[in-house]
Amino acid sequence: MDGGDGEDPVVQEIDVYLAKSLADKLYLFQYPVRPACMTYDDVPHLSAKIKPKQQKVELEVAIDAMSPNYCRSKGEQIALNVDGTTSEDSNTYSTKMMDKQTFSSIQATTNTSRYAAGVFRKGELHLTPLHGILQLRPSFSYLDKADTKHREREAANEAGDSSQDEAEDDIKQITVRFSRPESEQARQRRIQSYEFLQKKQAEEPWVHLHYNGVKDSRSEHERQYLFCQSMEVTENTELVKTRSEYLSMLMPPVTEEKVVKPVGPSNVLSMAQLRTLPLGDQVKTLMKNVKVMPFANLMGLLSSGTDSTAVLRCIQQVAMLVQGNWVVKSDVLYPKNSCSPHSGVPADVLCRGRDYVMWRFTQERSVLRKEVAAIVKLPPEDVKDFLEQMSVPRLNRGWEFLLPTDTEFVRKHPDVAQRQHMLWLGIQSKYELEKVYSLSKEDMVAKKADSQPVQVSGEQRLQAARQRAKENQASLQKDFERRRQTGAESAGVRVKEEPLSDTEEPMDTSLPNGLLNGYPDGMSSTDSFNGHGAHAPSKELQDFVEATFRKHYVLTLSEVKRLFNLHLASLPPGHSLFGGISDRLLQDTILLSNCRQIAVPFPSQSSAAMDEQKVFALWHTGETFDKHRHILFDIYMKHYRVRRNVIQTRLTQELGEEVTKADIDRLLKECCISYGGMWYLKGTVRS
């Protein structure tokens, strides 16, 4: 020791040089699953590639299949699972044996500013900053490829058994939703999602590299760049820092990073945050999230000691009393100038329809979804949303109100119950439910609050609805025939009497604003029929049908109606196309739009609805390709499902020339869909 200050003596001074030639290219590879004594230096490297932006590397190295430790039967089995029995250039293992493996990298750290590779030579230390530190582990992607091959083989085996008719499952309905403008919060969540990051990673192309061994001359040449190339001192590099400052430069103090709180959904609020809000906002937030709640439960969620009288004042501003329970008001869920997230229907129309559902539950315990949908004439998704908010489905009883009747609350607060009853009467008057929903006065008479609801099964109510529909149909038929005779006689046309069949309804109530008297508003019997006894379609309706079939080529009647409902939802309120559109008018419009009905011979055990068995196809477009479609449609008039080679053979025979693969692909893409190795017309298969 030199002196009494306790400092260590300087033993040697070493010059330190900063080499920058490989600063942006130098990576440190780590193999965490491999002992340090077992390196890969002498193992043949077959290929290497990198994604520079992501710092992702893949190395393909050979496996010594001649080693006594190698299980040959297992290697052959893995190669068979991955590549099958075929010999192709794209096979993973060309030798029919697992003779190679792939290493895939992950970043050990994203901040490499404190790491460098050092080389000591002749009393000099040369440091090169590391661009990345990567850990390489074996990749098992070949197992995914084997699993995919297995699924393909199973699918091929199922498709090959064409002699047996298989029962088809229901086709999954596709719901079209109108997307809203993306908020900044939603955009931040999207770009941080796993799916988005995976997509961005897949977009960067691989850069293929050439591997050089440790002892290759090129490797030796590259190692020279680890030494500083310019040894001349061009500036004064004498250290003028104090010892403490120098240590701080070498090891800067750890700064506590600011923790960014994750962005949660806008409708999530903790109870601690909730109780910091004013009482009115607390009640509104709870009701908006819960939708239906007894008053006792609401008091239990609020802070102890909260005045029940004040809560009653607040709850009446944001909810309505239904069977003694509180249900959030429609205008709270659907504010002004908003629209349905499912169909884009305006908020005022949604509020009127939801208020009708709430009013029905003030009258009875259960409602039928079909009855409600036929009356409010809103898209099925919105009607289902209304019912799910305040009821649950019951077998043979329709949708039953979510909670039992709270007679205790009505008994304790008769003044509130009476006030809510008057509010319901006001809602009936405001929306004029009698006129809007064509309800009778008897239907509008509210039952007393203390009366017990009568339980009626769903089957009984369905029978009653069918009876009423049959009576209405007979009345409409008489009026229909009388108007048609009057219009035909005035036009000098003899009309053949063709009564409707029992299975055909004069009006489809699933279409919004259907006709109640057989004619659109403002149209007389004379101008509502053309010379053939069919409804005359409007120009706008015919334009919609023509544009739809130009896009889809083949559609079932039910799919046309669904697309028409979506089209109506996109129109402004009061549009002229909102006039009554019946099934007959829609079918006549299709047939007048260069389309024909394809009589597909469905199997007798088919469970498809009548509308799904009515298949229409665009027959004439003015293209020479029309003859290809005509041959295809003729095939499907004899068989409801066929194989691709059958279609190709028939086209070749009819056209007298070889049909190209591009024409076959175009024809099948326009008109057909594949399922189980067979081809069906669009809309006629239940997958």
Automatic annotation (TrEMBL):
Q: Which positions are tagged coiled coil?
A: none
Q: Name one GO cellular component term.
A: RNA polymerase III complex
Residue ranges occupied by any DNA-directed RNA polymerase III subunit RPC5 C-terminal domain in the UniProt entry: 448-687
The UniProt annotation puts the region (Disordered) at 147-169, 449-510
GO aspect biological process, one term? tRNA transcription by RNA polymerase III
Bias (Basic and acidic residues) occurs at 147-156
Superkingdom classification of source: Eukaryota
Q: What is this protein called?
A: Polymerase (RNA) III (DNA directed) polypeptide E
Species assigned in the record: Scleropages formosus
Query: Which gene underlies this protein?
Result: POLR3E
